[in-house]
């Protein structure tokens, strides 16, 4: 690794560019005066003492006198960076103590006071990060008490894709939570996708889920306990379309979404009905060939 790369990689550790350059110069020499360091670095003599004092404070170098001349020596990197992290930890602990002793109660008291008006966005979460969206969904699902309703369609937010939350569904079903899902499966989907979908659905049903299939769903949607609605929308304007997930904590909105769910539930077909249609279609294809 060249010296410029080393200098750049030291910056995120809270070391300035000048400090990094001087420290690297000291690493390559046994002991130097401030004037000598200034000559072999880009740091002017007017600034070199300030930089060296910063390094001494950070315990990255030492200063000693020899025959009346002040010399600076680097501290071994392993020890130097243990010193740096120790200083940072002490600063964090000091700030935590300051918050705990002088701020926490006052800030919480302000937050707990009655507000004159409610922010209309207080009950809406907008999540664009897939990992964060998955974590929020799994947390809400795990805390369900009564019912979970799904509109399930690709693309799937869960990194494990379709069937990625089997264990979680098993847990909520064991807790006597009613789980109903409608799965989108269009006629243009591949045979492999359809058969995989059927296998996954049958597994979910064996855990206690009620499932149905429909050609198309309007949106990815989850409704939890008639109070929380989670839906995902694709940003078609972006160069690389991304899913944005919205979580609405509002019972009136959730009930309206549940009405939509029931409409599609009545329009969809059971897994047994879908399998009969699918097998019938496969038979026609075979006969045609």
Question: What's this entry about, in short?
Answer:
This protein is an alpha+beta fold. 52% of the residues lie in helices and 19% in strands.
Chain-wise SSE layout:
Layout (H helix, E strand, L loop, with lengths): L2 H8 L6 H11 L6 H7 L4 H13 L3 E6 L2 E6 L2 H36 L11 E4 L2 H13 L4 E6 L13 H9 L3 E7 L6 H17 L2 E5 L5 E5 L3 E7 L8 E7 L1 H17 L1 E2 H18 L1
Parallel strand pairs: 4-5, 5-6
Antiparallel strand pairs: 1-2, 3-9, 4-7, 6-10, 7-8, 8-9
Helix pairs in contact: 1-2, 2-4, 3-4
Descriptive report:
- The protein contains 10 helices and 10 strands.
- With 289 residues, it is an alpha+beta fold.
- It has 2 domains: 3-78, Arc Repressor Mutant, subunit A (Orthogonal Bundle), CATH 1.10.10; 124-288, 2-Layer Sandwich (Endonuclease, Chain A).
- Helix 3 (34-40) crosses helix 4 (45-57).
- It is elongated.
- The termini are far apart.
